[in-house]
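Before relying on records like the one below, remember that each one covers exactly one chain. Contacts with other chains, cofactors or solvent are not represented anywhere in the record.
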Amino acid sequence: MEKRITTPLTEEKVKDLKAGDSVLLSGVIYTGRDAAHKRLAELLEKGEELPIDVKDAVIYYVGPTPAKEGMAIGSAGPTTSYRMDAYTPALLDHGLRGMIGKGLRNAEVIESMKKNKAVYFGAIGGAAALIGKCVKKAEIVTYEDLGAEAIRRLEVEDLPIVVVIDSEGNNLYKVGREAYLSSKK
């Protein structure tokens, strides 16, 4: 069963999401990869204000390709998430509620997600062109000098994602593997 969710991604919405749920996400999300995350973390360390409001926000780990004519953005496949792990707990502590990427997260990130009632979504790496079609508007909001890694504000409609780690720490990579192995017995 697919769940339809619109941002902002409040704690109330997050608590109903469970590892393995298919989600169609609509609303405003931000992009950001490791270079942008490093800058955001440095601002937080200095006690300075962030250039985007991360409260109840979703950050998509992506460096999209340039837009083709008639499109808001080019291909927009997910980046490997562990590259943001060093910076993620500080952002979660400041209200970040959701992240979209691919791959595993470390134990510190998962504990911070549980503490801050956040969720980690997976996007399909091989579906970058399809994902790009879900983006209806894209604009760079900060760090333009980073090129594809600049932070963009995206308006998305029915972005297909899966809950990989829910706010209770249930991890699809773990429970999915266990379910598969137990079915082989």
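The mean pLDDT is 93.
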